[in-house]
Structures are given as structure tokens and as C-alpha cells.
């Protein structure tokens, strides 16, 4: 694998496929994540297959099958051999599983959610993680205990919920399906949100109106995922209107809208900031990946072509000049310079 390079427009424009990891014709990939060291990548498939990839050699070194549950959301923990993941199969078991790759054993089950989990994120430094669910709740968990250490009721069951930590883990944002992003102090979240960012703010509404009209979108605008920029200055919202909204993370003011990537059905697709926060990679429903300048909002170069269908998830490696994406297979992208 290539040594880390500075993130410039020229470098980002040169990204091309560096590795292809074949999938299975009867199952689709659902998730991808990198360990914080940048040395290990893990992927999940709808049939319950979890693969681990060495990012230095570019080779897969572990494959395990959890067919009983299927895997929907997958995250590395602080230990490179341990994962947390949620099930995909439609069942009454919506526990989060703490899984050891080393000996393929479940270390712990985290029970409490009564419907599908919609967000799963590890705390950047502590042994904690957060979840949201279609049961209408947000929860924080200590990885050493099977019961959640805190819960927020976020409205009616069935609403779209998502959440994310900032890069220090001191703040998290929660979208509660009512058109508002709420910001919480992670240490005192039971005190309630310290800020609320409504999507029906006049500035946002006016800016979105011509784009939504052009796309003939007349439904309720919902947020499907949240991402804080690495410098914690911005909050990126992926929406069911097939566009990205970037807000000021302190005041909730609209900074820019990214709408050049095709997403006709407004489905949840992969989106990730580059490690320095200068660029945004966003999956599209036609299998391409669009690169945006995070500051100007302009698309960088032409879309990357490689997948045959919508890019369900993508992540930038936190330590290496490497982008991973998934659909039917897993692709690694690197600069070709």
C-alpha cells in the first residue's frame, strides 16, 4: 500500500481502484470500517459474513460467518481483533454483539432495543458506544456491561433516528425524526440538549427549495446519517432527498449543500470525510463515488466508477491514503500518482 500523501485536489482526482475483494453473487455487502490504527479493515455481508483485511499488504486474512443473524452495521472497537455489530435478519433479536475475530467468539450481548438498530458508533477514546433504533430510543453503552448506561426517548417508534459522536467524543448529535438535530454533552446528556438545529430554518428551506423542486421531491425531509468533520467545525447530514447538508456544528447555520451525486430514491449511502476534513467522498445509487471539496462544495474530478449498484457504505482510512467502499464486492481506492 502507498505511503500517506497530503490531501490535495490533484491527489484526490487521481484515485483509482487498487484492490478488488470479490463478494458473493447471492449476498450484498452492508458495511465497512477501519480500525483507528489504519492497519485493519473489516467488512460485512448480508449473509452474515465478516471479512478482515490487512491494509498494509492488501490481503484478506480472516473470514467468519454469522449466518443466523446477518450483519447490518459493523464497527471496530479500540482492540483491533474485536468488533461490535447489529443484526440484519428480521427477528425479535435486536441485540448488539461484541465479537472477537481472533477466536470467533461472542464476548457479550447488549440487549435493550426492540426494533432495528439504525446507528452504531464507537466512542473515539472510551470503551463506550452509541446506538439509535426504530424503537424510538437512543442509548449509550459501556462495552464492559450488557445493559445500556443511559437511554433517551426520542419520539415515536418507527421514526428515522441517527446519531454520531464528534471526534473527541465530548459531544454527540442525534436526529430524532422530527426535523431537528439535537446536540448533547456526552458527559451530561440526561440534562437534555444544549442546542437544537431545525431543518425548517428559513435559510435552509430557501436554499433547498430549488434543488428539491428540480428533483421533484415533495416528501418529508429526513436525515439518514450524521458525520462530524475531523476538526469538529461542521456537521454533515445525509438526507432522504439524495443530498448532503453541511451545518456549522456550533450554531447550526447552513454552510453548503452537496447535490451532484445521483440518488434518485433517497436511500442511505456511504459518506465520509477525508482524514484532514478537506474532502468528502459520497456514494451514489449508480455505483459511482463522488468527491467533493468540503469548503467550496464543488465536485472534484469525475465520479469514480467501479461498483455496479448503489454504494451502501464507504470509509476513508484514518491513517492511510486509502478509501474503501462496498456494494456486491469491496473496493480499495488509492491515488495513482
From TrEMBL:
A Pfam family matched in the record: WD40
Family: Belongs to the WD repeat SWD2 family.
Protein localization: Nucleus
Coiled coil: none
GO molecular function: chromatin binding
Keywords: Nucleus, Repeat, WD repeat
Species in which this protein is naturally found: Thraustotheca clavata
Official protein name in the record: Uncharacterized protein
SMART domains, per the entry: WD40
InterPro entries membership: Swd2/WDR82 (IPR037867), WD40/YVTN_repeat-like_dom_sf (IPR015943), WD40_repeat_dom_sf (IPR036322), WD40_rpt (IPR001680)
GO CC annotation terms, alphabetical: Set1C/COMPASS complex
GO biological process terms held by the UniProt record: RNA metabolic process
Segments annotated as WD repeats: 110-151, 271-302
Superkingdom, natural source: Eukaryota
